[in-house]
Design a protein that fits this description.
Two copies of one chain form a homodimer.
Chain A lengths: L2 E5 L8 H14 L4 E5 L5 H7 L25 E2 L5 E4 L8 H5 L8 H9 L5 E5 L6 H9 L2 E7 L2 H5 L1 H14 L5 E8 L6 H7 L17 H8 L4 H4 L4 H17 L1
Parallel strand pairs in A: 1-5, 1-6, 2-4, 2-5, 6-7
Antiparallel strand pairs in A: 3-4
Helix pairs in contact in A: 1-2, 1-11, 4-5
The complex binds adenosine-5'-triphosphate (2 copies) and magnesium ion (2 copies).
One adenosine-5'-triphosphate (ATP) sits at the interface of chains B and A.
Chain lengths: 253, 253
């Protein structure tokens, strides 16, 4: 397999991290060896899956940007058998300036991931809320991009900007990058606004059938330093992420 | 008066833009001449208050970062008498790299705001979801920082990182910067998690009394290219932002 999926959207708070964590767990539970890479200086994915946030920078994704190949001691086992994670660090904020203008600045992540991509069936990357060098590195390294999409004016307004960046990456750096599609998050079909706004989504984006509903259990799980699969395995959001993992596998094959 | 308030939090989707827009309108309706500066390349504040998002870069906040003094043609009148806005542009993404390492890189915004700060009672800055050069410029230029705070694990986890940056700015660049406080957004007192999480908030942050409740009307207003004061003037969130403007004025005096 060897799919590398970037979970990206510059709009903040659309459930990039929630999707990266739960899609990764769902894939790992279908016996696919999965690696989650946390590219966000907020380290939210790291905090949930490793229950702590402070790691020495050379044992995080930071050193992959310093041209170091990914070593075994940067890949941490999570409580789920087939799920591993390379944590983030607050120091990756510095990467933006370190790589600015460097001739290989956009290729650092894809260069280091290459060595390990054969070891995993899926590599999932949680991106920060911006279209900066970190996110561009993720798009250059990825085979596919999945776009969490809240049905809101700001999230939909931002789509054209995201598509422009994706087009540029496909043209200049990574012709193989495909848009896997958009996945609706916080989906509440009762509100009439949802239906009106869906019409405004650019046709260029394929919308996945699986919709992730709203549930207070998501926040409860995180606050209890857990995730939905451990905290509420039969919750509608947990089941939606299971369905999403099946749909993602179908779409990719 | 002449207060310059930065609305900042690197966590995405905590209602920075919603707070910046509605606090600005509420202040302007109390007869305070108010300027909103949109520092986010997403241009969400610009889109709501000016009903369009594309402006030539030299007529946006972009040129203030190029050492140009703020000209009258960058300050746009909104539909509210006492409310003006300097729009953002997608080009401000380039500012991060342009200013990196420049000796005056953190002072560009405060340098250009100085010329106009006497013309306004309040200047409100809507920041992007990151702790990068744009947000640091806003903290260096500000007299006060207001922190929209969603009661969630990720938002609370990020507070110490934000406080560290504020401390550094106070020590190295802007000793007069004060923390006005945190304001709870999406507040829903029925959920028990809210009460448990509130205890985890570092004592260092003063929490304002006004809490901004959740309401579907917020998103409805934005989707109709409007805002709460025009779309739903008696909505509980509109009234909460009116209360917030009174509390902010009291705290500042
Ligand atoms: N389906 C859901 N139902 C209810 N709450 C949710 C759901 N998904 C995510 N959340 C909550 O919404 C908030 C935002 O989600 P999350 O942090 O995953 O978004 P993000 O896009 O990663 O944010 P950022 O832009 O800061 O990286 C979190 O507090 C999370 O608990
Ligand atoms: N009180 C509220 N009740 C319900 N929805 C709200 C409320 N405040 C904001 N929202 C909605 O939540 C979403 C996030 O708010 P907003 O975009 O203002 O956050 P932000 O912090 O500016 O995000 P970003 O980090 O992307 O800049 C928006 O779609 C907005 O309509
Ligand atoms: Mg996230
Ligand atoms: Mg915003």
């Amino acid at each position: 397999m060897g799919y590398i999926i970037s979970i990206a959207n510059q709009k903040g708070g659309v459930a990039k991290t929630t999707t990266a964590i739960h899609l990764s767990i769902a894939l790992s539970q279908k016996n696919h060896k999965t690696l989650l890479i946390d590219l966000d200086p907020q380290r939210n994915s790291t905090g949930v899956l490793l229950k702590k946030m402070d790691f020495p920078a050379d044992k995080t994704i930071y050193s992959a940007f310093q041209k170091q190949p990914i070593q075994g001691d940067m890949i941490y086992q999570t409580e789920y058998d087939n799920l591993f994670i390379i944590p983030s660090t607050i120091k990756i904020v510095e990467i933006e300036n370190l790589l600015a203008g460097m001739v290989d600045g956009f290729f650092r992540l894809s260069g280091s991931i290459n060595d390990i991509s054969r070891e995993f069936d899926f590599i999932i990357m949680d991106c920060p809320p911006s279209l900066s060098i970190l996110t561009v590195n993720a798009l250059v390294a990825a085979t596919d991009i999945l776009i969490p999409l809240q049905i809101s004016k700001f999230s939909i307004d931002g789509l054209n900007g995201l598509l422009d960046v994706i087009n540029t990456v496909q043209k200049r750096y990574n012709p193989k990058l495909k848009i896997l599609g958009g996945v609706f998050t916080f989906y509440d079909e009762r509100t009439t606004i949802a239906r009106a706004m869906i019409k405004k989504i650019p046709d260029k984006i394929h919308i996945l059938k699986t919709k992730i509903p709203k549930s207070v259990s998501v926040e409860e799980a995180f606050m209890l330093k857990s995730d939905l699969f451990s905290y509420a395995p039969r919750n509608k959001v947990t089941l939606a992420y299971k369905n999403l993992s099946s749909e993602v596998i179908n779409e990719l094959e």
